[in-house]
Amino acid sequence: MNEKTLVLIKPDAMIKRLAGNIISELYNLDLKMVGLKLVNVKKELAEKHYEEHKEKPFFQELIEHITGKLHENENVIAIVYSGENAISKVRELVGKTNPDESIPHTLRGKYGKIHSKTNCHETVIHASDSQDNAKKEIDLWFKKDELVE
Ligand code: CDP
Ligand code: MG
User: Ligand 1 — pocket residues by CB below 6 A?
Assistant: First the structure.
């Protein structure tokens, strides 16, 4: 099925200069990039994006992480990919939520880590996990005219 999905290259990946490597691996999935921008993520956007986690014990940390507060105010690269089974294809390359449980060839297996003091899962990348969430997230991060299709 033809789908769109949202990818965020998170501040922990940006500070480690991994954006190029990550985008390069995403190219191998044969999806079409239909939107891309650098975002200085404000608290309000972060809280909307991670709304489903607002009752979780790690929520505060997660908001600080995605807004760059834990990584020298690094920004986020937001990308929309489009193509056949885009959502599951990207999630497969991403790996599991817990980087320590992600198999080594996945992005989180390679680049993710659990912060030793805070236990924050520094997962390097976000990817939409369902069609409903993909639609919601793309509408949240991109205006219609910022997408080429
Ligand atoms: O990112 P993904 O969809 O795989 O996982 P999630 O359950 O939606 O969690 C969102 C983000 O919260 C993760 O990518 C981690 O950055 C963070 N998280 C965390 O710090 N500690 C946890 N125990 C679970 C998630
Ligand atoms: Mg998620």
Answer: 58, 62, 97, 120-121, 123, 126, 129
| N residues, the chain | 149
pTM: 0.98
Annotation marks residue 126 as catalytic: yes
Nearest-atom number in ligand 1 for the CA of 126 is 1
User: pLDDT (tens digit, 9 = 90+) per residue, 5-62?
Assistant: 999 999 999 999 999 999 999 999 999 999 999 999 999 999 999 999 999 999 999 9
Ligand 1 centroid to Cα of residue 103, in Å, is 16
Instruction: Give one DSSP letter per residue of 21-82, joined into a string.
Output: HHHHHHHTT-PEEEEEEEE---HHHHHHHTGGGTTSTTHHHHHHHHTTTTTTT--EEEEEEE
Residue 50: C-alpha distances to residues 14, 16, 60, 99 (Å): 19, 23, 10, 19
